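Notes to self after the call with IL:
- keep both proteins in one doc
- input above output, always
- annotate only the second one for now

Protein 1:
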Amino acid sequence: MKLLRMTTHEFVKLDRSLCFWPVGTVEAHDAGPLGTDVIAPEKLAGDLAPEFGAILLPTLPFGLVNSLSGYPGGMWMQKETYRSLVVELLDSVSVSGIEQVVVFNGHGGNSETLSEALSEVWKSCGVRTALVDWWVVGDDIAREIFGSSAGHGGSDELALVQAAIPDFVPEWDGSGSWLDREGVRAYPVPACSIRYSGIEAKPFSVAAASAYYERLRDRIRGIVSEILEGWSAGARIDG
């Protein structure tokens, strides 16, 4: 149920208590599309929304870009602009009777500001909000399946793009990516793909990508279920 494809008449007849909202940013991802951080959360939210009867809000494709802002093709905004945008948009949907919003985030640079904004939304208009950083949730699965080729612009992100665009099959093994090290920062980062582990990399494959996506989706399904069950129990106590 995509908000953008409904008429007002259709929208008001729905159970409007729950929305899923994919958000990301536009930045370099080496072998992956500039919109990787948009495609990934949109795929997850779109696949899971029907199971939960959630309305799919229009994806917010623009966010914050920091160390990768030196690479061509990126689009970003200032932190305060982003925070205000998130707060104002969610405040606006509360007027339509939306009570709960699960945000599927595709970009780590958004996370801190998103968390602050979602807390503000709950306090200001009473909309329950949750933030899912999918790559953090699936980190152990990615390391098991992909080794050090997981990471920014790595096999885990490429797997979600491949799930959304089946004919996208990149050649990738993580060998050309920058190894992120504690205590080291560079602006711009020396490569537009980044590894967060020195574990031996495994080449990208469609079979591994499919296995990762299925396990990640199952895990997030469980997490969202727990969040909604907890909110429901809390609402009963409040009542």
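Protein 2 (the one to annotate):
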Amino acid sequence: MNEVLKAIKERRSIRKFKPDMPGRKDIDAVIEAGLYAASGKGTQSPIIIAVTNKELRDKISHDNCKIGGWDESFDPFYGAPVILIVLAPEDNFNNVRDGSLVLGNMMLAAHSLGLGSIWVNRAYEEFLTDDYRKLLVDLGITGKYIGVGHCALGFIDGETPKAAPRKPGRVFYAE
């Protein structure tokens, strides 16, 4: 089977990660795959913030948990040591669509490298707050961005889940 099609069929969302940090080379390869995602009118407008600093990672986890309304002991990133945050310009009509393609590419790339990943929501709500707007300024990011999502990344702790059977009746041909 074609390697890309195989990766698409085998990639699963991972909900238990080892604390070990993936190598920078692999993190950069995952990010590069995101940067090659298709974008409306070829604008390549989404940006990625790679969070490998444990203190910041834990703050994001805590804030994300609070936004989600969970008990503060819950980690919405399931122990993943890396968070890749995808943002897109607020004024770009395709911002969420383009950012979603970036996230999809990164999750497939992670799988192809033997890493686990999961898309975690609530980046939108995070980047409406002053703390996260300040983070952008601190990183030298100018302009108005919205949070699209997080790609939690790391080594899988346990077995990769099996795919659920695909639901029938979801394809229609207009021939």
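Annotation: The longest strand covers residues 145-154. Residues 18-154 form a domain with the NADH Oxidase fold (CATH 3.40.109.10).
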